[in-house]
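Task: sequence design from structure.
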């Protein structure tokens, strides 16, 4: 081989190595637990599309759903390690940052318009800085949704109907305490394990938004759907240790896309609630409404415990309740 050919080969080889390294550095991994077609999945896909348009090849969001990169707790650990770049935690945030237990309180969030005010006046100015101190950077506040109860035993019309029900709940101490106070036997469990637990009878029931219940096919192993709307859970687009490695332009694109996606998600979520409720009925589930006032009365103790145990909680509860009235 001539000198020129050797030189050209060396240059091409070096260029190839550089291109591969650059590609590895700019792949941004986003992990979540949602199944295909779920609200979490659609939200992540919409965000990825917007970011990839903005950065024009400098970086690329790659989405890994269905707990491919781990359950919620594992994803938070990986955010801190920098092995996952972005995640969509929900309830589990209350196990890492106590203030996030605010969204474990039953019947705190009135509707999505109320949630938008909570996002702008409580989550981002107060709770997000608390999360950042613990290594989690909140880029956007999306949605997991209003939670309903399914089970294989009986319709749930009042809290006492939960007596003795083995109920899967996500990792969060306040959700466990709430259902214990209602008389259920709640057990935290990774979302990826829930279907089999319901199928085998290890669990009698679970509670989740319709946007998780239908895509996860829980109607195949659950008979009763009770529309309790007991908790509204946000989903937080969250970055971790790897955030610092991205330049200002990429950070700006990620932040802008996260905020732009918020109102889109609320629209998608509202439509999904309608569509999936009908599909669950068509799938054979027996659906009942509940008297929410009875559940609200049974939840007073959780509010008192949270206010007593978490600094700033009392003020945040009061602020949240004021924001509910301000939109009336």
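Answer:
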């Amino acid at each position: 081989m001539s000198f020129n050919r050797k030189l050209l080969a060396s240059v091409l080889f070096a260029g190839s190595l550089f291109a591969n390294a650059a590609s590895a550095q700019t792949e941004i991994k986003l992990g979540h637990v949602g199944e295909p077609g779920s609200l979490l999945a659609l939200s992540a896909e919409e965000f990825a599309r917007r970011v990839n348009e903005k950065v024009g090849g400098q970086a690329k969001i790659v989405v890994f759903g269905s707990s491919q990169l781990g359950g919620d707790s594992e994803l938070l650990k990986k955010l801190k390690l920098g092995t996952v770049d972005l995640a969509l935690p929900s309830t589990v945030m209350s196990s890492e940052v106590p203030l996030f237990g605010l969204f474990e309180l039953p019947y705190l969030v009135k509707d999505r318009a109320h949630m938008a005010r909570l996002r702008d006046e409580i989550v981002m100015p107060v709770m997000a800085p608390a999360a950042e101190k613990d290594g989690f950077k909140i880029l956007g506040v999306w949605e997991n949704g209003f939670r309903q109860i399914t089970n294989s035993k009986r319709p749930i019309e009042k809290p006492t109907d939960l007596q003795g029900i083995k109920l899967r709940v996500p990792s969060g101490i306040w959700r466990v305490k709430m259902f214990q106070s209602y008389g259920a036997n709640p057990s935290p469990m990774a979302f990826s394990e829930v279907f089999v637990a319901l199928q085998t009878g290890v669990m009698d029931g679970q509670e989740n938004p319709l946007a998780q219940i239908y895509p996860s096919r829980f109607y195949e192993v659950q008979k009763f759907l009770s529309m309790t709307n007991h908790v509204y859970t946000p989903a937080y687009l969250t970055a971790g240790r790897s955030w610092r490695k991205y330049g200002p332009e990429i950070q700006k694109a990620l932040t802008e896309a996260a905020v732009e996606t918020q109102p889109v998600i609320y629209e998608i979520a509202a439509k999904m609630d309608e569509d999936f409720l009908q599909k669950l009925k068509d799938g054979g589930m027996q659906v009942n409404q509940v008297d929410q006032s009875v559940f609200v009365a049974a939840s007073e103790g959780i509010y008192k415990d949270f206010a007593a145990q978490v600094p700033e909680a009392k003020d945040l509860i009061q602020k949240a309740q004021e924001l509910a009235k301000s939109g009336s």
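Residues 248-282 form the longest helix (35 residues).
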